Amino acid sequence: MLDILRDNWLLLLIGQYPNGPLGGLAMTLILAVCAIAAAFVLGTLIALARTSGIALLYWPATALVYVVRGLPPVMAVFWAYFALPVLIGRPIPGFWTLLTALILYESTYLSEIIRAGIQSLPKGQVEAAKALGFGYGRITCDIVLPQVYHTMLPSMVSQFVSTIKETSLGYIIAVQELTFAANQINSQLLTRPFEVFLILAVIYFLVCFTLTSAARFLERRVARQRNAPALKVQPA
Amino acid sequence: MITLHKVNKWYGQYHALKSVSAEVAPGSVVVVCGPSGSGKSTLIRTINRLEPIGDGQILVNGDDVHAAKGREINRIRSHIGFVFQQFNLFPHLSVLDNVAIAPVRILGLSWHEARERARALLTRVGLAQRIDRYPHHLSGGQQQRVAIARALAMKPPVMLFDEPTSALDPEMVGEVLQVMQSLAAEGMTMICVTHEMGFAREVASEVWFMDHGEIIETGSPAEFFSAPRSERARKFLAEIRH
Ligand SMILES: Nc1ncnc2c1ncn2[C@@H]1O[C@H](COP(=O)(O)OP(=O)(O)OP(=O)(O)O)[C@@H](O)[C@H]1O
Ligand SMILES: [Mg+2]
Predict the structure, then answer these.
(1) Residue B23: beta bridge partners?
(2) Which of A3, A184, B111, B133 has the highest count of CB atoms within 10 angstroms of its CB?
(3) Is the pTM of the predicted complex or chain greater than 0.80?
(4) Which ligand is closest to the CA of B33, given by its number?
(5) Among A130, A146, A147, whose Cβ lies nearest the Cβ of B77?
(6) How far is the CA of B233 from the centre of ligand 2 (A)?
(7) Which residues on chain A are in Cβ contact (under 8 Å) with B82?
């Protein structure tokens, strides 16, 4: 098994780069970081739409959240794969297809976390800001979201862990990420699938476990800082 | 300075304010008291429109509070200081920035200017040593003094207080009342919902007694405490004196 690792570690780490496309764990992490960053912004907008009290914003956002949350993530990948080229009018690379699917999927989950945070903020916070003369935008940016993001930090890390695992779906549309690299190695060796996929499993586990531990640590810190029970982090 | 004209307020079917009319002259200090559920918080919260009203009119500094359209209400509110029972400080901001943020965001001061203003106000409420702390490091009495400084930072011509001392441990009530008293002495126009009868006697220019959504008696503190006219006020005073 160590020989597999010795011969292929670079492939697992960065794919064929610099002689070919970037792949492996590097691509997995790039995808996950880009997806979670964009989903964070989109998720905030969805959460604001759902807490706005404006029907025209509330209903589309709510429908989106319910539909996407009711589907397995692989459906988001399929939809992005078949629908995006039609929408845009030309074929798009697998990287963008997968990224779109992950953003769509993760933003609905993050939006629910953010919405819960907005709604659990004591109502005196908004009232105090209103009484000072703050408008909606200022209250949201200066008072509500900073507090929500702070308490949500641990949940966000565990959502990042989910995203890392979901990037492996890229395999089915030939995005060169970590699972794709492992499968390449398996195809070359042919006879040693258990060892190859054990290595793959260990890599995912190490990355995700480290991050989940970080989330636990953050959770305790947030709880201490605010002197309030934090939301429990679900193992992702 | 503050005029209420036939203000009615319903929570669903419940008639919380029944055609309330009253007036507060500039520089006067009104203490509002009455039994629990009589509508004191509702009344004071309609004055800066934290609660909407059914009908009637409320004028503050010449502005018709409930007729204001769109963002106009933000400007009106910025001229009305409000202090809550539960302080409602912003936990993610330092004490200094709790006081400085409104002048920055609403008056357009620089952070430097606003923090100077905040430092002066915090010194005045006796918290110069605590400016870098966060709210949860402070005692209740200290938090409430920060909340008063935060409201004062907008230089409002009127201040509203909704039971500012009733969430405090008894030994901290005095320090907050003292700040309010010094404000009154400087001529601030104030409406205070409070059951602190000592404060009312010494500081109030007028007492309003509320029951069942109505102001049923008004008078100077001397009159009200020694010779309440209504039976309900007599009963209320007997109860709070045990
Ligand atoms: N948001 C609300 N929805 C429905 N009813 C309400 C609401 N807020 C207050 N009420 C009712 O209106 C009445 C007046 O309430 P308010 O809070 O103004 O009383 P209060 O005089 O401030 O009492 P306390 O001394 O307990 O603070 C009460 O009967 C209360 O139950
Ligand atoms: Mg009350």
Answers:
(1) B3
(2) A184
(3) yes
(4) 1
(5) A130
(6) 18
(7) 128, 131
